[in-house]
From TrEMBL:
This is Purple acid phosphatase. InterPro entries: Calcineurin-like_PHP (IPR004843), Metallo-depent_PP-like (IPR029052), MPP_PAP (IPR041792), PAPs_C (IPR025733), Purple_acid_Pase-like_N (IPR008963). It comes from Panicum hallii var. hallii. Its EC number is 3.1.3.2. Residues 9-23 have a biased composition (Basic and acidic residues). It catalyses: a phosphate monoester + H2O = an alcohol + phosphate. Residues 92-307 form the Calcineurin-like phosphoesterase domain. Residues 1-23 are annotated as: Disordered.
Length: 417
């Protein structure tokens, strides 16, 4: 039961079909998720709140009806309703990936390789009055097929998820399993095949088995890709990405953000740089013309467990020599790896590519603060102390987004006499 939570509602659970799928299921589900990792998860309830007033604070509490008809109530919590698309107000966004969970008493647990997750969680909770929405962009709980660990993760982040929207993207540890329809044939999900992630956390996907979606938050448009499904030109997801980027009104929503778990843009992480690709094979070649054509401000990735920021870049070349302040004509997209949410850290290549402005092997997260239609602050903060270690500002007018640069203008038709 939900009291004082607004109008509308509903509930859902892991259906009998999904439950049977995980326990006996088809080839889509694997071990250990349907054997030793299985635990009956009970019901997962989702309430849909409608007719909320933008930016208004709402208070609520959740209860459970006992067999005798009495209700046991939890404590009150509150959330602020999101701004409407295009609304001009102070909007603060946090983005990170690959966090996982850990034991507060220091005891050992299965998959105990996310030592920074508690620092990230606690630092965000301490500053939650200055955060409006959170994006956890893949590799969520690292349950890897042991379902009870999703409960542990949910309890760890409850101080965040009970107060602000907690949006997720699909990563290899949520989705990948051989012959299950994922783009990569690994076993990182432990047989979960995306079922747990798409059930535990609601997102506005059209088809929840394909975890790509768009979401508007005030002056921001977010296009969230599913890097565990094919993104190449001609695919269903490629069409979604282009439509998401193409349909935003940049006069009302000037800040256009692309998100994926795996690095589809730029990273000098060791395992991406060792073969010289600096990204997933063919990813940049498939998507960079879309980022340039539709003038994507920033692209964020996880998967590599460190932090790195590029210059505004197109076709592997910096389009600006600035590092801390960007203004005027928009040209090129800034790519950011924020995979240091909590899991074990990853090394960089020895050589620093020309497009890499700042890189750090530490735990942390990114924060975007939009003040209005033309002014934005970017910050990278370490989880250990919440202090800023990298930042830049953007000041740009609508005409700067419209200005023609390479590969971002409609083709001209020569005049014939």
């Amino acid at each position: 039961m939900v009291q004082q939570a607004g109008k509308g509602g509903g509930e859902r659970g892991i259906t009998r079909e999904r439950e049977a799928c995980m326990r006996e299921g088809p080839v889509r589900l694997g071990e250990p998720a349907r054997s030793v990792g299985w635990r009956d998860p009970g019901f997962i309830h989702t309430a849909f709140l409608t007719d909320l007033w933008p930016n208004k604070e709402y208070y609520y509490k959740i209860g459970h009806m006992l067999p005798d008809g009495n209700v046991t109530w939890g404590k009150f919590s509150s959330f602020r309703a999101p701004p409407y698309p295009g609304q001009k107000s102070l909007q603060r966004v946090v983005i990170f990936g690959d966090m996982g969970k850990a034991e507060r008493d220091g005891s050992n647990e299965y998959s105990n390789y996310q030592p920074g997750s508690l620092n990230t969680t606690d630092t965000l909770i301490k500053d939650l009055d200055n955060i409006d929405i959170v994006f956890h962009i893949g590799d969520i709980s690292y349950a890897n097929g042991y379902i009870s660990q999703w409960d542990q993760f949910a309890q760890q982040v409850e101080g965040i998820t009970s107060r602000v929207p907690y949006m997720i993207a699909s990563g290899n540890h949520e989705r990948d399993w051989p012959n299950s329809g994922s783009f990569f044939n690994g076993t990182d999900s432990g047989g979960e095949c995306g079922v747990l992630a798409e059930t535990m956390y609601y997102t506005p996907t059209e088809n929840r088995a394909n975890y790509w979606y768009s979401t508007d938050y005030g002056m921001f448009r977010f296009c969230i890709a599913d890097s565990e499904h094919d993104w190449r030109e001609g695919t269903e997801q490629y069409k979604f990405i282009e439509n998401c980027l193409a349909t935003v009104d940049r006069k009302k929503q000037p800040w256009l953000i692309f998100i994926a778990h795996r690095v589809l843009g730029y990273s000098s992480g060791f395992f991406y740089g060792i073969d010289g690709a600096f990204a997933e094979p063919t990813s940049r070649q498939s998507l960079q013309k879309l980022w340039q054509k539709y003038r994507v401000d920033m692209a964020f990735y996880g998967h590599v467990h460190n932090y790195e920021r590029t210059c505004p870049v197109y076709e592997e070349k910096c389009t600006s020599s600035e590092k801390s302040h960007y203004s005027g004509t928009m040209n090129g997209t800034i790519h950011v790896v924020v995979g240091g949410g909590g899991s074990h850290l990853s090394n960089f290549t020895t050589e620093v590519p020309a497009w890499s402005i700042y890189r750090e092997m530490d735990y942390g997260f990114a924060k975007l603060t939009a003040f209005n239609y033309s002014s934005l602050l970017y910050e990278y903060k370490r989880s250990s102390d919440g202090k800023v270690y990298d930042s830049f500002t953007v000041n740009r007018e609508y005409r700067d987004v419209l200005a023609c640069v390479k590969d971002s203008c409609p083709p001209t038709i020569p005049v014939t006499s």
